[in-house]
Design goal:
With 436 residues, the protein is mostly helical. The chain is built from 21 helices and no strands. The chain has a single domain, classed as MFS general substrate transporter like domains (Growth Hormone, Chain: A, Up-down Bundle), CATH 1.20.1250.20. Keywords: Cell membrane, Membrane, Symport, Transmembrane, Transmembrane helix, Transport.
Length: 436
């Protein structure tokens, strides 16, 4: 179980690291790849390129989700990791607009598209793989440990950017220092590929293969028979996508716009992410005890109520300690929510098309909500002139997920092979009174 969890989390860490690095370096990239635009327009352009990777994630989900259901979870995991690590490394080697003009942003967009294709299947397949080894009474804990990979990657990316900002001059950081975090994707990717080549296939997939029940056309079956489940996954993922990217990626650029230095903004973000790691570690096991839907519902309500006051406090912060405190507070609910959601996806989906339905629903949420999160948040600030405006977007996501949590409550959990094995071994997983 430790090997399975580590392998799933390692790839998830690398994939999210690659995304996070771009988010933390957006201010610099906007000057290098969109130098002729006004500062606000250049920043919006850079945020738009960040969102481009999310546009193609549904396509990646169809490809890699179908691979996971037809040819195995392990095969899909290897493919996504090779693609995302390669594309990120190339970003670190790209010439800027000063060297090749319009081709610089075009190549940047192309690499982001490749990252998006890989990400369309990475997160969902990693979660499915780990969950299919785990009985229900430990599934929240196990998937939250895989989720830790995503949060740890944010800390890793933010820490590297913070270190570079502290050791390099602003001129050096703009000239060549920004490339270092992207180039680190190569050794990280090679390490992840090595780990994943040593994996065995999940017991759930092996059982389907031995019984001759693998779907011949997973995508067709997912949309024809399980489209409602795709919508349900989208709803649960709504706040996870918006909250995660606003609280842990957009916050860094947002803080700089409030008048703080890049180093102070990164420091506040690093502390927030460090606290989030603890909360993710705690949230998963807690959902094993009190139930998934209860936590999803409660956290959505809390975010609806507190989003605006949190942004009001953050936008009015004038000292570094208060800035750090409010940044941490903004990330508490998104961190807890993202620790509970993964096990929920697994338990409401049938094994035959679990990879495809999970990947598609989650990728569509990423494309429509997660990818545009940075752009929409900045757009709301630009249009309204109100630094508290991003709160409305977070509240919107929380409302969608609130209704999804109510729908989860009405569904019975899909039993996994690991649950039946646990009962046969005398472990007697605790029954959930609310079905999940």
């Amino acid at each position: 179980m430790r090997r399975v969890t580590f392998a799933a989390a390692a790839g998830n860490t690398i994939e999210t690291y690659d995304y996070a690095v771009y988010g933390f370096l957006t201010v610099i990239l906007s000057k290098l790849f969109f130098p002729g635009a006004q500062p606000g327009v250049a920043l919006l352009s850079a945020f738009a390129v960040f969102g481009v990777a999310f546009v193609v994630r549904p396509l990646g989900s169809l490809v890699f989700g179908a691979i996971a259901d037809r040819f195995g979870r392990r095969t899909s995991l290897l493919g996504t990791l090779v693609l995302v690590a390669g594309a990120t490394t190339v970003i670190g080697l790209l010439p800027t607009a000063a060297s090749i003009g319009i081709w610089a942003p075009i190549l940047l967009v192309l690499m982001r598209l490749l990252q998006g294709l890989a990400a369309g299947g990475e997160y969902s397949t990693a979660m499915v793989y780990a969950a299919e080894f785990t009985p229900q009474n430990r599934r929240g804990a196990m998937t939250s440990r895989v989720q830790l990979g995503s949060v740890v990657s944010l800390l890793l990316a933010a820490g590297i950017v913070l270190l570079l900002n502290a050791t390099l001059t602003r001129e050096a950081m703009t000239a060549w220092g920004w490339r270092i975090p992207f180039l680190l994707a190569l050794p990280l990717g090679l390490f992840g590929i090595y780990i994943r080549t040593r994996l065995e296939e999940s017991p759930e997939f092996r059982a389907l293969a031995q019984a001759g029940e693998l779907p011949a056309a997973p995508v067709k079956e997912a949309f024809a028979r399980h489209w409602r489940l795709i919508v349900l996954v989208f709803g649960v993922a709504a706040f996870q996508q918006i909250g995660y990217y606003v609280a842990f990626t957009y916050a860094q650029s947002y803080i700089i716009q409030l008048g703080f230095t890049p180093g102070q903004a990164t420091l506040a973000t690093v502390v927030s992410i460090a606290v989030a790691i603890v909360l993710v570690f705690v949230g998963g096991p807690l959902s094993d005890r009190i139930g998934r839907w209860r936590m999803l519902l409660g956290l959505s309500v809390v975010m609806i109520v507190t989003a605006y006051p949190l942004f009001a406090g953050l936008s009015s912060a004038r000292s570094l300690p208060l800035l750090v405190l409010m940044t941490v507070a903004l990330g508490v609910v998104p961190a807890l929510y993202t620790s509970v959601a993964p096990a929920t996806y697994i338990e409401v989906l049938p094994a035959k098309v679990r990879g495809t339905v999970f990947a598609v629903g989650f990728a569509v949420a990423a494309a429509l909500l997660g990818g545009p999160a940075l752009y929409v948040s900045q757009f709301l600030v630009e249009v309204t002139g109100d630094h508290r405006a991003p709160a409305y977007f977070m509240m919107f996501g929380a409302v969608l997920s609130l209704f999804a949590a109510l729908a989860v409550r009405r569904r019975r959990a899909t039993p996994l092979l690991a649950d039946r094995v646990a009962v046969a071994d005398g472990q007697s997983p605790r029954r959930e009174a609310e079905q999940v």
